[in-house]
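Support reply, case 0932

Customer input (verbatim):
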Amino acid sequence: MNTKTLVASRMPTIRLAGRIRLLLRRMWRYRIVYLMLLPGLLYFAIFRYGPLYEAQIAFKDFQPLLGVEGSPWIGFQNFATFFKSYYFSQLIVNTLIISVAKLIFGIPPAIILALALSEVRYFPKLARIAQTMSYLPHFLSWIVIFGILLGLLSPSTGLINSAISNAGKEPVGFLTDPNWFRIIVVSSDIWKETGWGAILYLAALLAVDPTQHEAAAIDGASRIQRILYISLPNIKDVIVLVTLLRLGSILDAGFTQIFALYSLPVYSVGDIIDTWVYRTGILNAQFSLATSVGLFKGLIGLCLIFTANRIAKRFAGTGLY
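Our regenerated output:
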């Protein structure tokens, strides 16, 4: 073998080694940045990607005494069991209805609140009070929210039902009535998360060049026109990004909230995938079946992220990546 042939055969290895050395030099140059990233990367590696190894029990008849490796392989039988079960369509419908309702009715109030807060920034004290009041519910647990809702909606002692009784009508069991339960779930979620969801929109609005508003005002544009033609177009990318992120978790209807609020009378409209997985996996010890359902939900969410990203790039010109 001549020298030229030998060098040509080793070129891929030489190029790879050169790229590795270049990468190592760049990492050393920005070592402080990588050290700052390290805790987050370790968190995802240990608590997010590490447990994926155990997800193989979705394809096994998991028996705790045999362990993950020793349990017999059964393929897609757990998935078939879930798809053929009586609860499958009910769980999917309930989850989608609640999630889509939160998405459709939850994003506009956050945008409106952000626009309102940006418009009162010339009155800093009023803006601070309004921001604090709108952010506070986010930091309350759903157990506390349940107590508040119970004080308002209880058929016997709730303030709203007391007013209904004083008007000569029958009290309404809002939390146990299938006709009302989804409305309570969606409206309480909007009340709790609107202030927190407005933070991103408000940050984007504060980054808008104020000279645009000043020029529009000189040209005679009203406040509403400035909001429609300056503020909203400038936060379009943020709106798309937030919508994409929420589309990826469309099958996550809020386990903690539903678990705190629902009861047996409203299972038909309030039982979602996560609550069913909890009962099946934890209470009934059907770990393999529960894992397969969780894996199915994760794969659907991943597909939705990719699809929504492509749609956003095509119609909005921006995406997650």
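We compared this against your earlier run and they match. Two observations from our side: The chain has 16 helices and no strands. The mean pLDDT is 83. Please reopen the case if you see a mismatch on your end.
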